[in-house]
Design goal:
- The chain is α/β, with parallel strands linked by helices.
- About 30% of the residues lie in helices and about 20% in strands.
- The chain is globular and about 55 Å long.
- It binds flavin mononucleotide.
- Flavin mononucleotide binds near residues 55 and 250.
Amino acid sequence: MDVGKPIENAVDMRVNIAGVEWKNPVTTASGTFGSGEEFSEFVDLNRLGAVTTKGVANIPWAGNPTPRIAETYGGMMNAIGLQNPGIDLFCERDIPLLRQYDTKIIVNVCGKSEEDYCEVVERLAGEDVDMLEINISCPNVKEGGIAFGQDPKAAEHITKAVKKYAGQPVIMKLSPNVTSIPEMAKAVEAGGADAVSLINTLTGMKIDVHRRRFVLANKTGGVSGPAIHPIAVRMVYEAAHAVKLPIIGMGGIASAEDAVEMILAGADAVSVGTVNFHNPAVTEEIVEGIAAYMRTYGFARVADMVGIV
Ligand SMILES: Cc1cc2nc3c(=O)[nH]c(=O)nc-3n(C[C@H](O)[C@H](O)[C@H](O)COP(=O)(O)O)c2cc1C
């Protein structure tokens, strides 16, 4: 008996996201998995479908003043403000580290203006990475970011702009802080997006009642973790019914059951975020758990489960 065989070999876990084949549908949510390499002590990165990097801009960003994270019931709040080393150091240091592993690399891109985004995307066109995820949904930076993610016309426009420079398939990352997810998903589809991912964090606020002060220096922050999961499932379901694009679902996924729920709602793949801070080995456990679910319920391929509810 081949006892060393990984359980997912018994079922076909491969997924095709905009022409890129992942070995399974599990990736990491941007900003919650360091550069990827930092987690290699806890997770065999070769076992993940893809690693999604933290956001990178054209130049280094210092991020917001501290305190910039806080715990909440069933999750956390952050106002990191997209601190990053800038594209030059990222290409030199982070890409070669991740390339040691047999997994797809998705680079998350942030910017304050259309030019910023396009500069990073153009620079990445010549790099050995597999997909780009364009963050137009960060609630914690004052200019850019969310300005593109809350207005359908602006979202369509920025999608068209980055597509002109992109050398890899483009995933547009949507914000939940909008009135209509279907409208935003349709806008990026009209702009030529190759896939969509959702959700980014929900804007929240926390007050320290003993000091009568905001807990975060930024006053507001993005809420993430299990508390937002039902909202994310609803939004993924809505997006899946609005567009034909592949969908990467995220928001509060903490277990294989949560991941399967997202897939049944219409996600072709899933990203795991906040729960990595609590259990750094969770992504690999989720891969195994999805395989076990498929075996239990007789699903031969992941695609057979997508959006069936
Ligand atoms: C500390 C922290 C940093 C994040 N940084 C980024 C980022 O750089 N780019 C981005 O697109 N999303 C970022 N996010 C959002 C996550 O990728 C994800 O969309 C969100 O947290 C919901 O998933 P979760 O509930 O599983 O964490 C960040 C979230 C957290 C908690």
